[in-house]
Amino acid sequence: MSIAKKEYKRITVKTLVDMKSKGEKISMLTAYDFTMAKIVDGAGIDVILVGDSASNVMAGHETTLPITLDQMIYHASSVVRAINRSLVVVDLPFGTYQSDPKEALRSAIRIMKESGGHAVKLEGGKEIKDSIKRILNAGIPVMGHLGLTPQSIYKFGTYTVRAKEDHEAHQLKEDALMLEKAGCFAIVLEKIPAKLAREVAESVSIPVIGIGAGDGVDGQVLVLHDMLGMTHEFNPRFLRRYMNLYEDMTTAIAQYVSDVKSKDFPNNEEQY
Ligand code: KIV
């Protein structure tokens, strides 16, 4: 398998906007630790998202709500130490930006100063407009996130497709225009109808990156552990698995256990 061609030496927020204007699709994956981020960056990914999905895949929580700012900074700084080329975007976790714009800015500043990440991502539209503006005014690039916003899971009660009703679709389009106007450099659209996502991508000049949002957007993002098949209980329609690491790792570990028990490991060449 070939490694992606690295036409751009270092990805910046401006590179992403240029990619959209040239019709070049943007690749984005999550990563939360040094070793994985090194592989992801080396394979040619454009954007690494230190997602608050770390709460699920790294910490085993049911939702993204419990992860803290300190924990996000720990994950993000591990990722930043690994990368040479990718743009690193870090999620502001639940409870660190919704209550007031000053707190939002303080949280974003902590991420930028203490992790070395290049941008932050916030979930929501008009209700967090002032927080987004405050962060942008401090020179911190912001990626928006609309559609299914997992930090609001208890408001909706399910992880089903969002914006199927006309009024929700209308609000989502308005929010996307607001994010562009405020100065966000990109927007993630999660789990919405493909037709709506295409309309949004065509209506804004900033890149729109989809997850479960179809092929009419400017790029795609997946959770690394899902696309590598390390998680196996989660099977949404939009997820393409490129490996079955759950099975491969289980087989390898079971073989190791058996080799230790049978005294096959270590053999003569594997000792001093
Ligand atoms: O936290 C995350 O992994 C995300 C992606 C699903 C976009 O926000």
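^ 3-methyl-2-oxobutanoic acid complex. The mean pLDDT is 96. The pocket of 3-methyl-2-oxobutanoic acid is lined by residues 30, 49, 51-53, 91, 188, 190, 211, 221, 223 (CB under 6 Å).
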